[in-house]
Amino acid sequence: MPDIYDFSIETLNGQTLPLASYRGKVLLLVNTASECGFTAQLGGLEQLYQRYREQGLEIIGFPCNQFGGQEPGDAAAIGQFCQKNFGVSFALSAKIDVNGADAHPLWRHLVAAKPGLLGSRRIKWNFTKFLVDGEGRIRKRFAPYVKPAALERAIESLLRTQKH
């Protein structure tokens, strides 16, 4: 099975970002959408990022249009929306699929490592969250309705145990 650090993503601005550059950091990986009932979570994610980034937290948002067509914009529209409405400063990937034949390999890896309810290897909706420790181990999966603030205890625990 590949390691999380074997994957690279394309950022919203078209750059290649190897996840190996995050080795030693706690990662929160989230599929996002601009027109979802959970979109306000972008603000909560930014608050987590501001609070914990100096301690080693990195967040990557993965815009996805697979759930109700709730991420219809292009890269420029997505970036502008996230910045203007929520002040997002954490990394955003290019728009991806998280389910199906065209699912990004990273997301296939995430759901295989941490299946959902009843062992499902599908993402149910926008704002599914995966928490990864500094060693690249996928530690927890959080449902879309779980607000970012509810992740603080799990993030703090991983930050305390990571190698500096």
UniProtKB/TrEMBL annotation:
Residue span, Thioredoxin domain: 1-160
Alphabetical keyword list: Oxidoreductase, Peroxidase
PROSITE patterns assigned to the protein according to its UniProt record, in alphabetical order: GLUTATHIONE_PEROXID_1, GLUTATHIONE_PEROXID_2, GLUTATHIONE_PEROXID_3, THIOREDOXIN_2
Family matches, as InterPro entries: Glutathione_peroxidase (IPR000889), GPX_AS (IPR029759), GPX_CS (IPR029760), Thioredoxin-like_sf (IPR036249), Thioredoxin_domain (IPR013766)
Pfam families (UniProt xref): GSHPx (PF00255)
Signal sequence residues: none
Keyword Oxidoreductase listed: yes
PANTHER family: GLUTATHIONE PEROXIDASE
Name this protein carries in UniProt: Glutathione peroxidase
Phylogenetic lineage: Bacteria, Pseudomonadati, Pseudomonadota, Betaproteobacteria, Neisseriales
